[in-house]
Design a protein that fits this description.
mainly alpha; Citrate Synthase, domain 1; Cytochrome p450-Terp, domain 2; 5 strands; binds coenzyme A
């Protein structure tokens, strides 16, 4: 259950001010039509009124992206037109972007995307208007959505194996994204499992990176810069970085289990309990809003079951969930499941958070547009708690200590 955290008030020089809980815990800061996270996990909504697990299990990338941006599932004509446009943007890559990408060292691909998004902004929208209509904003949103997989695949391959996988618009967006990551064409099952995770990641209320994007949009900065800010926020281990950390943790547990000659599903309990004793976080568990269940795990689990070593992984994850429920009353979150799913697909771990971004860019851009079209600068007050009353002292008169 959510902790009871109350707002308090104080009288300021210009009237009463609200003091909200640290981390904006349990605070509603605005309305949105794009998605809503239900703390019980039963009714987390994607735009238009669908539950996230329904869309995650059934919609393809184009349908879900269209839904989040236009508010309804596309009919056949709308689908074809949207797909055609998005696919055409996948190949409109400025040559100078590729030249620039070749210079970047083999660091985490999330660094690379911030740089690439900023470059895209300079190519496609060097001047950003203070007023714009939906069509203008949507065009730039689609460019970002279309090019994100290419950028991350280049970020991974170019500085490591020198390969540059160009988009193949004859393949659907998600399957082609996985092809560029793996350097081989995936099977239909692999592509579908991967696509479902992109759809599940697309949006999730005012999560940290989406809120970062909305704060950026509220200053009327351009959509590319706002998306780069979203990437910066998503990169952190308490947010998108958790899928990488969750898998790294499971692999560490597996190494220890192998050394002891015990199957992982039998060892995982001891591993988690020991970590908890050391007061360490178990990555892939807990959530700011979900305190009972994350419905996205139900869809992801079905795909984990069908992929390589699926039975083994489901046993391990089920056991880990049992232990965390017993010890901390914390549910698994989607990152635990996608971490395993991407591992089953043979994707290198530093690409897991970038894949999260390939989905979430759809939500970021939808939120950017919603904020931009109905804007109010997001700028909270603060309560200064440091000393006051000092006067400037020239350097020569300052004490050395
Ligand atoms: C996601 C997260 C940041 C949410 O944080 P939060 O809303 O501030 O967490 P809560 O207030 O619900 O935490 C309640 C308690 O459980 C603990 N806790 C939360 N997640 C935990 C985890 N994954 N492992 C161990 N303990 C955890 C907290 O330390 C806190 O303990 P305390 O009451 O003794 O201080 C947190 O659960 C976390 O760090 N999880 C691991 C990272 C992760 O998987 N992130 C992806 C989120 S989709």
């Amino acid at each position: 259950m959510s902790k009871e955290v109350e707002c308090t008030y104080e009288e300021g020089p210009l009237g009463r001010r609200i003091i909200v809980p640290k981390g904006l815990y349990n605070v509603i800061v605005d309305t949105t039509e794009i998605s809503g996270v239900d703390p019980t996990g039963k009714a987390t909504i994607y735009r238009g009124g669908y539950t996230i697990d329904d869309i995650g299990a059934n919609a393809d990338f184009y349908e879900a992206a269209f839904l989040l941006h236009y508010g309804h599932l596309p009919n056949e004509d709308e689908y074809k037109e949207y797909k055609k446009k998005l696919d055409s943007y996948r190949t409109q890559i400025p040559a100078k972007l590729i030249d620039a990408l070749k210079l970047v060292p083999a660091t985490h691909p999330m660094y690379y995307a911030q740089f690439a998004y900023n470059l895209l902004g300079q190519f496609f929208a060097p001047e950003w208007p203070q007023k714009a209509n939906f069509e203008f904003l949507e065009e730039h949103a689609m460019r970002l959505i279309a090019l994100t997989p290419f950028i991350f695949a280049a970020a991974w391959h170019l500085p490591r194996d020198g390969n540059l996988y160009m988009p193949d618009p004859s393949l659907p967006h998600a399957k082609d994204a996985l092809r560029m990551i793996l350097g081989r064409e995936p099977s239909d099952l692999e592509a579908r499992a991967f696509e479902a995770t992109l759809v599940l990641y697309m949006d999730h209320g005012f999560n940290a990176s989406t809120f970062t994007v909305r704060v950026s949009a509220s200053t009327l900065t351009d959509i590319y810069s706002a998306a780069a800010a979203g990437v910066a926020s998503l990169k952190g281990p308490l947010h998108g970085g958790a899928n990488e950390q969750a898998m790294a943790m499971l692999l560490e547990a597996k190494k220890q289990a192998d050394a002891k000659g015990v199957p992982l599903d039998q060892y995982i309990e001891e591993y988690i309990v020991e970590k908890l004793k050391r007061k360490e976080l178990i990555m892939g568990f807990g959530h700011r809003v979900y305190k009972i269940h994350d419905p996205r795990t139900d869809v992801a689990r079905k795909f984990v079951q069908q992929l390589k070593d699926g039975d083994m992984w489901v046993k391990v994850l089920t056991k880990a969930e049992e232990v965390m429920q017993r010890e901390k009353k914390l549910p698994a979150n989607i990152d635990l499941y996608t971490g395993v799913l991407y591992y089953q697909l043979g994707i290198p771990i530093p690409m897991y958070t970038p894949i999260f971004a390939m989905g979430r860019i759809v939500g970021w851009t939808a939120h950017y547009i919603e904020q931009f079209l109905n804007n109010k600068l997001i700028r909270p007050d603060e309560k200064y708690v440091g000393p006051t009353g000092l006067k400037y002292v020239p350097m020569s008169q300052r004490s050395r200590k």
